[in-house]
Amino acid sequence: MRRYVALGLLAALLAAAAIASLMTNASPRRAELRVLNATVTSITPTGLMIEGVEGELTARGKWIVVADAVRLCNWSVASGYIGEGHALMAMAAIEEGNSTRYVLLALKQGGVTLFRPLLLKHAALAHKHVRTYVSLRGELVSKGGNYMVLERAGRRVLALVRGRWIKAGAGEVTWGDVQGDFKPGDEVRVFCHHVLVFKPWFSKIFGIDALIWGYSGAIIDLTSGTTISRA
């Protein structure tokens, strides 16, 4: 059974230009944000179809994909990461006269997460930027081509680690060269400049409580001893 969750963020989301551009010129009489478990029945060049909803969920535009790597891409690329079947998603249902338009805002299917970039702005609870660095420590639970996920006290942090690094004793490397040294279950400490903390509703949907990036200090695997610093 689908579960619909009303979120207080709706007004801000619908006011965002990225969503407004998907609407017709007519002003919607009512809009509702829905978070639901649904079954994807087909994927199209402009969106997708789900069981129980008449009409397409529009998905044109830019998407952030978290899969084998974190990347920003158009729907034509993002849609290639998902398929038919069960998914958790957020969508806007917009009433326009006697019809309803549906806009896909986010989707999670298996190990793949897709969401519109505008959600980062509206899902942010706090952004901390320091000139020196912030130290964070946690257990490595997963990793990809340019990121890793750390967990501490039940909270998960997505750490972006793209770019070139200096590995102690080995010289200049990429994350791809050294990610094998960082294994799930290892204790890892990172020193970063930016921490973006998400609101609880976003964390509940995506399982990510914060995003970190920007390094001048090091990333240290306290279990293996591997240490890298920004090149």
In short:
The chain has 231 residues and is mainly beta. 13% of the residues lie in helices and 53% in strands.
Structural class: mainly beta
Overall average pLDDT: 86
The secondary-structure element order is HHEEEEEHEEEHEEEEEHEHEEE
How far the N terminus sits from the C terminus, by CA atoms, comes to 51 Å
CATH class of the largest domain: Mainly Beta
Gyration radius (Cα, Å) is 19 Å
How many strand units?
Answer: 17
Biggest sheet record: 5 strands, mixed, barrel
Task: Provide an overview of this structure.
The protein is mainly β. It has 2 domains: 10-116, no CATH class; 123-230, OB fold (Dihydrolipoamide Acetyltransferase, E2P) (Beta Barrel), CATH 2.40.50. It has helices spanning 10-15, 17-20, 75-78, 118-123, 175-178, 200-206; strands spanning 30-44, 47-50, 57-58, 62-66, 70-74, 85-96, 99-109, 112-115, 124-143, 147-152, 155-160, 164-167, 171-174, 187-198, 210-213, 218-221, 227-230. A hairpin with a 3-residue loop joins β9 (124-143) and β10.
Topology of this structure?
Layout: H1 10-15, H2 17-20, E1 30-44, E2 47-50, E3 57-58, E4 62-66, E5 70-74, H3 75-78, E6 85-96, E7 99-109, E8 112-115, H4 118-123, E9 124-143, E10 147-152, E11 155-160, E12 164-167, E13 171-174, H5 175-178, E14 187-198, H6 200-206, E15 210-213, E16 218-221, E17 227-230
Parallel strand pairs: 3-7, 11-15
Antiparallel strand pairs: 1-2, 1-6, 2-3, 4-5, 4-8, 6-7, 7-8, 9-10, 9-14, 10-11, 12-13, 12-17, 14-15, 14-16, 16-17
